[in-house]
Specification:
InterPro entries: At4g02000-like, DUF4283
Number of strands: 7
Strand order of the largest sheet: 4-5-3-7-6
CATH topology of one domain: Alpha-Beta Plaits
CATH superfamily of one domain: RRM (RNA recognition motif) domain
Organism: Fraxinus pennsylvanica
Low-confidence stretches: none
Radius of gyration: 17 Å
Largest sheet: 5 strands, antiparallel
Protein name: DUF4283 domain-containing protein
Pfam family, one: DUF4283
């Protein structure tokens, strides 16, 4: 299995207002954000299950074509990077919002996604006759 492709050149750590970090150009930020275009965030409302339970449940029950990358963002948020548009649409349109015994809200990842506030981007169900 190949490692992740390098989207932008390696960066050296720099001091940014007293914290260590990286500086990117606007073009580099756009390239990096493109890698997350099929990213969805699960925000668990109470206790977040462990990562292995979340991965196993997603792989066994979501009916995806490809295995997504699942990673923690913080104590309540999990990033699910889907591998293709079909899986992304299928997952974004899901009605069920329970995973491994934990209820969650589903949000679309965006470059300005803020873990401390609720995203205004959420799926809406419209039933037509």
């Amino acid at each position: 299995m190949a490692g992740p492709k390098q989207v932008v050149a390696m960066k050296n750590l720099v001091d940014i207002d007293g914290d260590m970090g990286f500086r990117f150009t606007e073009m580099e930020e756009k390239k990096l954000a493109e890698e997350f275009r099929f990213g969805l965030v699960l925000k668990f409302l109470t206790v977040r299950p462990n990562i292995d339970t979340i991965r196993l449940t997603i792989n066994k029950t979501w009916g995806l074509r490809e295995v997504p990358m699942v990673s923690f963002m913080d104590s309540k948020h999990v990033l699910v990077q889907l591998r293709n548009e079909v899986d992304y649409i299928h997952t974004w349109a899901r009605e069920g919002r329970t995973k491994a015994g934990g209820n969650f809200r589903l949000f679309k990842w965006t470059p300005d996604f803020d873990l401390s506030s609720e995203s205004p981007l959420a799926p809406q169900w419209i039933f037509l006759p």
